[in-house]
Write a structure and sequence with these properties.
- The complex is a heterodimer of chains A (146) and B (381).
- Chain A has no helices and nine strands.
- Chain A is mainly β.
- Chain A has one domain.
- Chain B has 381 residues and is an alpha/beta fold.
- Chain B has a domain of 116 residues: Thiolase/Chalcone synthase (Peroxisomal Thiolase, Chain A, domain 1), CATH 3.40.47.
- Chain B is built from twelve helices and twelve strands.
- In chain B, the strands form two sheets. A nine-stranded mixed beta sheet of chain B has the order 3-2-4-7-1-8-12-11-10.
- In chain B, strand 11 and strand 12 form a beta hairpin.
- Chain B is globular.
- The chains are: A mainly beta (146), B alpha/beta (381).
- Chains A and B meet through strand 3, strand 5, strand 6, strand 7 and strand 9 of A and helix 4, helix 5, strand 5 and strand 9 of B.
Chain lengths: 146, 381
């Protein structure tokens, strides 16, 4: 395998257990929810326990790629710490996106900030946020208008 | 259950003090509380330090120079609610009979600007830019506006009230009145929250000395009884504060303020109508509106009306943040709840000067912050 061939570049998730695999093609990747078999509540990503009922019988389910904006704000100043977004900073939306399975996911919202509003239809985008020190492409997520 | 009284209070102004260490800030407030209680450090049997950003063993470093008396010293951290958790531990210690004289000190010395995000967020949340603290309150505000029609003007009116109250508070960092226009024209920090509607982390200290109520007369002729001190952490689907990553859309639990408030009212055997003055967590102006609703000063969705009608002004039915609130005082996190208690004790003693609520007999203090830590304390004459 030629590691320098862009086709073979290794892609990793920004947080373990966040996306369905394989991560290629990235357009088909989905967020994972951990659904509790006892109370049916869902949390984002791979989990050991259900924070609603304490149950340990969890099932990983793929979350729909479509959702609706439940609430939002606009981040107008560069966030503190090791932010990996565009430099120089570009303001972006941040919101809770309601997914049909019954979970609201906190996510950056990539859209025209003049048009951002509660209830708008959004679609998941999994994309490379940065390249780490081992030359891995690190995948993050955001939502965009459909 | 044995009743517990506040027999002394102390404060170090909230602000920026480049030439003072956290040790001096804390020691000054502690000494002031001891003088107020007509006690000396050697009389204290247990001491709590409430803090978030100070280093390990800060409590021991602050207290031991007052006299290495061998007493237990415990540092407590629960983000913005640290002071409430520390106070509740002190109350339990006295109620159990283990201690008679307990000091609770809150002290903080924080860097300027945004707080270090790695204290609260995971690495991936920081890298994706989801670590701006005010954004969580801002998203609450936006949803409240959507659900109930709360307006930018109503949010600005809360900031107007608190800045106006602060002019008479010598312990606040900002003591300047702003017009509604100035507030609405100040830059957006996280939509819809603006610069003049938000509190800044800073430095300061506040302290209380407690003892069993039946012994309070030995130390003071103005004991203040702790009628309830209820710390809590949010239920599952109400876990809205940083570092949130997702929330249930299926289950609706009551928020931590509502839960702690109800329990505190129950313990005190009173309701919001019996309370004469409130100091609450105005991390930004919007959240004060939501707290009106969750503490039962009005129904859900009516918080905006309450500020429109002036109900929460010093001369209103439910005066809130007579001190100017955190928007004006700044928020030295570990010290903020003890600072609220200081203000209410001044009110109940009738010593609050131009911020005085006439004839105040019962007061409530509320804090809420990261990790969804929350506390409500009710005190009475």
């Amino acid at each position: 395998m030629d590691r320098d061939d862009p086709q073979n570049k290794k892609r990793i998730s920004i947080r373990e257990g966040l996306f369905t695999t394989p991560l290629v093609p990235v357009e088909q990747a989905k967020l994972i929810g951990s659904q509790c078999k006892d109370c049916s509540e869902i949390s984002l990503g791979k989990r050991q326990t259900c924070s609603n009922c304490g149950g340990v019988n969890l099932e990983e389910i793929p979350l729909s790629r479509q959702g609706k904006l439940w609430t939002y704000t606009v981040i107008r100043h560069k966030p503190p710490g090791d932010y990996k977004g565009p430099d120089p900073f570009v303001p972006f939306g941040l919101g809770l996106v309601e997914i049909p399975e019954g979970i609201r996911v906190l996510s950056p919202i990539q859209c025209d900030l003049e048009g951002i509003k509660v209830g708008m239809d959004l679609e998941l985008e999994v994309y490379p946020l940065y390249t780490d020190e081992n030359k891995n492409e690190v995948l993050a997520f955001r939502f965009r208008p459909v | 259950m044995k009743e517990v009284a506040i027999i002394g209070v102390g404060i170090h102004k909230f602000g920026r003090f480049e030439n003072k260490s956290y040790l001096e800030l804390g020691q000054e407030a502690a000494q002031m509380a001891l003088r107020d209680a007509h006690l000396e450090w050697k009389d204290v049997q247990m001491a709590y330090l409430s803090k978030m950003y100070l280093p390990a063993t800060s409590g021991a470093r602050i207290f031991k120079p007052l006299g290495a008396t061998g007493i237990p010293i415990c540092d407590i951290e629960a983000a913005c609610a640290s002071g409430g958790i520390a106070l509740s531990q002190a109350v339990l210690g006295i109620q159990s009979g283990a201690f008679d004289i307990v000091m609770v000190l809150g002290t903080e010395k924080m860097p300027r600007g945004f707080m270090d995000p790695s204290m609260i967020y995971e690495k991936w949340q920081i890298q994706m830019g989801m670590d701006t603290n005010p954004s969580y309150w801002a998203m609450r505000a936006r949803r409240h506006m959507y659900d109930y029609g709360t307006t930018d003007l109503q949010i600005a009116k809360v900031a107007f009230k608190n800045h106006k109250n602060s002019v008479h508070n010598p312990y606040a960092i900002y003591r300047k009145e702003f017009t509604i226009e100035e507030i609405l024209n100040s830059p957006l920090v996280c939509d819809p929250i603006r610069l003049l509607e938000i509190c800044a982390p800073n430095e300061g200290a506040a302290a209380v000395v407690l003892c069993p109520k039946d012994k309070a007369a030995r130390y003071t002729n103005q004991p203040i009884t702790i009628a309830a001190c209820v710390p809590t952490n949010a239920y599952y689907s109400a876990d809205f504060r940083a570092p949130l990553d997702s929330l249930s859309a299926k289950t609706a639990n009551p928020g931590p303020t509502e839960v702690a408030g109800k329990k505190a009212y129950e313990q005190a055997g009173i309701g919001p109508k019996d309370i004469n003055c409130f100091e609450v967590q105005d991390t930004d102006a919007f959240c004060e509106i939501e707290i009106y609703e969750q503490l039962g000063l009005c129904q859900a969705g009516e918080g905006g009306r309450l500020i429109d009608e002036g109900v929460t002004q010093i001369d209103g039915k439910y005066p809130v943040n007579m001190s100017g609130g955190l928007i004006s005082k700044g928020e030295p996190i570990g010290a903020s709840h003890l600072g609220q208690i200081f203000e209410i004790v001044m009110q109940l003693r009738g010593e609050a000067g131009q911020r005085q609520v006439p004839n105040a007999k019962v007061g409530l203090a509320h804090v809420l912050g990261a990790g969804n830590n929350c506390a409500v304390t009710i005190v009475k004459k």
